[in-house]
Structures are given as C-alpha cells and as structure tokens.
Amino acid sequence: GSLPGASSHSLKYFSSSILEPSQGLPHFVAVGYVDGQVFVHYDSKSRRVQPRVSWMEKVEKEDPQYRERNTQNFFVAEDSFRRNLENLRLRYNQSEGFHTLQTMYGCELQANRSKGGFLLQADGRKEGFWQHGYDGRTFLTFDKERLTWVAPQPQAQITQRKWDAIPGHNQRKKFYLEEICIEWLEKHLSYGKETLLRTEPPEVTMSSKTEVEDGMETHVCRLHGFYPREIDASWTRDGEVWLQDTFRVSVAPNADGTFHAWLSIRIDPKERGRYWCHVEHDSLQEPLDVALEELNLGLIIGCVVAGLVL
C-alpha cells in the first residue's frame, strides 16, 4: 500500500552489456525510465539516443544539446562496459562466451498532490541507489550515507577499494543522486505532466464462485484501469480490515499505461453481508467501499461473461 494522497516518482537508468552476444543482440543497451515508463533508449547498433515519449520534444527544445550530450555519455559508457567485461572475465578466471555486466541507478521523490508539490522523505533523506551486477549477481552496491561501495564477493573488493580511494569519486556519485538526478526528475515530470501526473480512477468489478465440496464462496474484487500505480485495496469485515482467507495479487500494467489488480476472499455465504472491498487511490476524493451484497446481480452476469471470455 501507499500513503493516501501521496505517490512516489522516480528517474532510473538501466544499462547492460553482453560479451559475445548471440542472435543479433546489441553489445550494449541503455534505457531511461520515468515512473517506470521508458523515455530514452540507446544501443550499440544505432549509437544514438532515441526519445521514446512525445514530451521529450519539449526537453530537446529547451536543451538543444540534450541528445548529443547523452549520446556521447552512453558512447563512453559502452566503451568502458566492454573493457570492464573483459577485465572481469579474467578476474573470475572464466572462459570466453556469454557474460553480462549490468548497472542500475536512479532517484525517487514523494509527491504530495494536495499541495501540488514534491516532498523529500519524511526524515529528510533523498532516496537514491547505484548498483552493478555481473552475470546476474550483485557485484557492487553504493552506500551513499556512508560514502562507500559494498562488495558481496571477493572479486568485487578489488574494485571497491580502488573506487573508495579515488578522491571525490563517491562524493560525486552522492551529489548526482541527491541533486542532479532529482533536478532532472522534476524537469521530466513538468514536461510530461499530462501523462505522468494524471489520475485515472479504478473501475471495480466482482466475480464469485461456490466451492462444491464445502459450500464456501470465493469472491474476487477486480480493479481495472487505474493510474498512478500506487493503490491501497483490502477486504473489510464489519468495517475492519480482514486479512484472514484473503489472497492478493500484486499490481500489473495494462497495455495503455494504466494498471490492474485483484484480491480474493473465501467466505461462508451466510456472512456475505459483512464483507466489503475497500479501495484508496490518488484519483478518489473519498475511499471507495463496494459491498458484496450489492454485486450479486452483477456477479451472475460477470460469471456468464467470464465464461464466454474463457
């Protein structure tokens, strides 16, 4: 769940490089995400930064060097990834073949809709992360509060000692995550606000089935087409949150950029009147409570339609 009326926004970059890629995969790919949506893409085949959302035109209008500068940055990264992969293969004493090096870094802000602005974390921290992985396992993670790299494997400790010893290296990483990254996140949110700061309320539907063996009923509360992703949904019994016999499925994306989720509960049919599906979301002025009783007519129709779909 999340704080009602608050949602988080994030800017993240994922890069990955493959040694001896097969089936036409590029050697190097870098992707930028705002709130989980791809906004820029670079790979070693095109060697150009490609905007992936229409609002990037506004960014490039205000900052004509944006594409050139970032293409150059990724080009340099591609080259260093290639060299690092070769070094790591030798360090791990491995044969040639398929090896991967990945980097993820980014920052996050809490947004407060009612005030129309952004908030730092409650304790004043700015959320940020930077980590590297080799062959699918964590290689190095940056601890920005203690200004050091954390190495879970002996092979990574060599790099950790080297990086920790470079004057100002870790301070620059921290400055990027806490200042520059946050600044760009705010900039992107203001350019893409029509899509990134919109709200779409969830449509709630129910379906149910009776278990033949014991006569118990399973009810499913489905939430369709909401945005942003953060949502609080629970079953309540006599007005209290009821966790017993409930099963919740995590939020998943729809093709149009909205999200869906569902939660189910198993109950004695005689107690149907006591249960409600309770939903809180940024798009709703008040929490939404949908009674099981209200939906029994809809359930029958829903089951018929579901049957046809299946």
Kindly describe this structure.
The protein has 310 residues and is of the alpha+beta class. It has 6 helices and 17 strands. The strands form 3 sheets. Strands 1, 2, 3, 4, 5, 6, 7, 8 and 9 form a 9-stranded antiparallel β-sheet that branches. It has a 4-stranded antiparallel β-sheet with strand order 10-11-15-14. The protein has a 4-stranded antiparallel β-sheet with strand order 13-12-16-17, with no helix packed on it.
Chart the SSEs and their pairings:
Blueprint: E1 6-19, E2 28-34, E3 37-43, E4 50-51, H1 56-62, H2 66-91, E5 99-112, E6 117-119, E7 127-134, E8 137-143, E9 148-150, H3 154-165, H4 169-191, H5 193-196, E10 203-210, E11 217-226, E12 232-237, E13 240-241, E14 246-253, E15 259-267, E16 275-280, E17 288-291, H6 296-309
Could you give a short description of this structure?
The protein has 310 residues and is of the alpha+beta class. It has 6 helices and 17 strands. Strands 1, 2, 3, 4, 5, 6, 7, 8 and 9 form a 9-stranded antiparallel sheet that branches. Strands 10-11-15-14 form a 4-stranded antiparallel sheet.
Structural class: alpha+beta
Q: Unreliable stretches, pLDDT < 50, 5 or more residues?
A: 1-5, 297-305
Query: How far from one another are the termini?
Result: 31 Å
Strand elements, count: 17
**How many DSSP helices?**
6
Q: How would a crystallographer describe the biggest sheet?
A: 9 strands, antiparallel
Helix/strand order, N-terminal first: EEEEHHEEEEEHHHEEEEEEEEH
Q: What average pLDDT do the residues reach?
A: 88
Shape: elongated
Strand content: 35-45%
Cα radius of gyration in angstroms: 24 Å
Assembly of the depicted chains: single chain
